[in-house]
Amino acid sequence: MNVPRVCVWLLAALCAWSGAHAGQDCGERAAPTAQALAQGLALGERVRDQLEQSGASAALVARVGLNLGEFGQRYTHMGVAVRDHVRRRWQVLHLFNPCGKAESEISVQPLEQFYEVDLFAYEALVVTPSYALQAAMREVFMNPATTRALHKPAYNMIAHPFNTRFQNSNQWILEMLALALDRSGGIRDRTAAQAWLQRAGFEPGTIRISNLRRTGARLFSAHVSFADHTQEEYEKQTYQVITVDSIVRFVAGQDPGLVSSTVR
User: Fold this and answer.
1) Which pLDDT band, with edges at 50, 70 and 90, does 14 fall under?
2) Please, which residues have CB within 8 angstroms of residue 117's CB and are 6 or more apart in sequence?
3) Which of 133, 174, 185 lies closest to 151, judged by CA?
4) Which residue from 102, 164, 181, 263 could staple onto 190, CB 3.0 to 4.6 Å apart?
5) What is the pLDDT of residues 79-134, one digit of tens each?
6) Mean pLDDT confidence for 162-172
7) C-alpha angle with apex 111: 11 to 28, nearest 5 degrees?
8) pLDDT at residue 157 above 60?
9) Cα–Cα dist 157/138, whole Å
10) Phi, psi angles (nearest 5°) of residue 36
């Protein structure tokens, strides 16, 4: 067996579940070609046009960084698009894990650039909440103190949904959404956000990682850690993760006015 090739495949599969990539970094595909950049830019422009036509001021957006068909998933990475009414443009806030680093950064970039990468499929998911939740999301995501308070730089591609040791991008989005959804003012940190999500009935996605894959991931990537997962998950070889689908399902249950659409 060619061990290096097996490890490369393994890491690609695991990276897909992190969804924690802003520009083109370690987790998605190779450096984008000129054609890929053009296709991504065109997709971003179509997403922007749809948001403008909807009259929204904030929305969830997602992209297809890798082929997750074998895991039953389509979208890998989620961000929050917020309209800058003064400049009449859209920006996306999300977590970025720079290649070669074990920590994530909060990234703010033009909406078009969010898709200007070498994607597996040039397709976008646009999730538009009710106006009330949009307003709450703007308040939360545009507050630097809040974004920092719920950000854990220690990065893990498969961070456990209910553990604060690590964090990945979809997890940051979800925990920030918990703050937007809970208007009691009781959420001030990640521990409180995760406790609220559990009480509210959030159900994570799952991914099967065999013990062989797990060993390879620990040996060959600083971005994969199982330290925050449970013994039960290890024995079942099935791990809880936060997927784009699980976020959308949860928010839809909390906000009946939510509308999801696909842009190609």
Assistant:
1) very low
2) 23, 24, 28, 29, 32, 36, 37, 40, 63, 65
3) 174
4) 164
5) 999 999 988 899 999 998 877 577 899 999 999 999 988 899 999 999 999 999 99
6) 96
7) 10
8) yes
9) 27
10) -65, -40
Residue 219: both structure tokens together: 């040996």
User: Three-class SS of residue 56?
Assistant: coil
Q: What is the dihedral of CA 33, 221, 172, 68, to 10 degrees?
A: 60
**What does the mean pLDDT of the chain come to?**
85
Render the burial of 193-225: b for 16+ CB within 10 Å, e for the rest: bbebbeeeebebbbbebeeebbebbeebbebbb
Q: Distance (Å, rounded) from C-alpha 174 to C-alpha 79?
A: 10
Closest CA to 23 of 154, 155, 112: 112
Give CA separation, 67 vs 28, 94, 135, in Å: 10, 21, 33
The predicted structure's pLDDT at residue 214: 76
Spatial contact of 189 and 149, defined as CB atoms under 8 Å apart: yes
| Single-letter amino acid code for the residue at 229 | H
What residues pair up with 93 in beta bridges, in sequence order? 80, 108
69 band by pLDDT with thresholds 50, 70 and 90: confident
Main-chain phi, psi angles of 261, to 5 degrees: -150, 160
- For residues 118 and 110, what is the distance between their CA atoms, to the nearest angstrom? 17
- CA dist., res. 208 & res. 262, Å (int): 27
